[in-house]
Amino acid sequence: VRTAAVIPAAGLGVRLGPGAPKALRTLGGTPMLVHAVRAMAASRAVTHIVVVAPQDDPEGVRRLLDAHPLADRTGLTVVPGGTTRQESVRRGLAALPDGIDVVLVHDAARPLVPVETVDAVIAAVRDGAPAVVPALPLADTVKQVEPRPQGTPEPVVGTPERSLLRAVQTPQGFDLPTLLAAHEIVVEGEGATDDAGLVERLGKPVVLVPGHEEAFKVTRPLDLVLAEAVLARRRA
Ligand code: C5P
Questions:
Q1: Which atom of ligand 1 is nearest to the CA of 89?
Q2: Where are the membrane-spanning stretches (predicted)?
Q3: 3-class secondary structure, 136
Q4: Which residue has the least CA distance to atom 5 on ligand 1?
Q5: What ipTM was predicted for this assembly?
Q6: In percent, how much of the chain has pLDDT > 90?
């Protein structure tokens, strides 16, 4: 069984505030994307990584990654991204080498996921699950709202039972034909925010494995502070 990882890294990171595209911002002096690539390459099972770069500068991303080489056993391809995450992942899948059976899709915005989580996802796919997602219980209670224009109070329409909800992370792992089929049937613009959601629409089972607190997504400025603290603790 050969395993590859696709890393969508073409987002602008608007919620993080002004600056470079999110994946190129540094943590502990190293670009977030380099951390994410290393996190995938840390798994001995991963033989190839496809990075989906910001559309305007794939060559710059290639140079950046060449300056932070991986062990020889891991191949690397860089392709330009699309306007949505879904399109970026689709372009990454199209660039996979032949002979891959299992594919991970991992957000560049989750640079600190531990290798144990990566390996647990891969193992569950190899054990026969077509789609595997790392997930954690929620700390916060979640409300469903009726959308209103910005600045207007939103009425609450319901409170899903918290114990039945999970926050999902990446890498999400798939049997490759399943993920290709899911991306084929789902029309762009239908608003899938993760890849497993596309597989659910195919009617195939998606299973969860335990996620990890350090696999959090760097989205807002406070997340950068937390990520720096996690790195500093690892290096201590
Ligand atoms: O926007 P969101 O937080 O869901 O982005 C998750 C991941 O998808 C990020 O790593 C981001 O770089 C990537 N992305 C992408 N292409 C887009 C939008 C997001 O590769 N057009």
A1: 20
A2: none
A3: strand
A4: 11
A5: 0.95
A6: 87
Smallest CA separation from ligand 1 atom 21, residue: 84
pLDDT at 48: 97
**Which residues are CB-neighbours of 178 under 8 A, at least 6 positions away?**
130, 131, 199, 202, 204
Amino acid of residue 229: A
The CB-side HSE value for 81 (13 A sphere, CA atoms) comes to 25
Q: Determine the Cα–Cα distance for residues 236 and 226; give it in Å rounded to an integer.
A: 15
Query: What distance in angstroms lies between residue 186's CA and the mean position of ligand 1's atoms?
Result: 18
Name the DSSP letter for residue 73.
T
Please list, in sequence order, all residues whose beta carbon lies within 8 angstroms of the beta carbon of residue 173, skipping any fewer than 6 positions away: 102, 103, 104, 121, 122, 124, 125, 131, 132, 133
Residue 114 amino acid letter: P
User: How far apart are the C-alpha atoms of 199 and 131, rounded to whole Å?
Assistant: 7
Could you tell me the CATH superfamily of domain 3-132+168-235? Spore Coat Polysaccharide Biosynthesis Protein SpsA; Chain A (3.90.550.10)
- List the Cα angle 49/6/94 in 5-degree steps: 100
Query: What pTM does this model have?
Result: 0.96
Number of C-beta neighbours around residue 117 at 10 A:
22
Bridge-partner residues for 79, per DSSP? 52
Q: Where are the domains of the chain?
A: 3-132+168-235
Q: How far apart are CA 168 and CA 137, in angstroms?
A: 9
Neighbour tally for 132: CB within 10 Å: 28
Please, which pLDDT band fits residue 59 given cuts at 50, 70 and 90?
very high
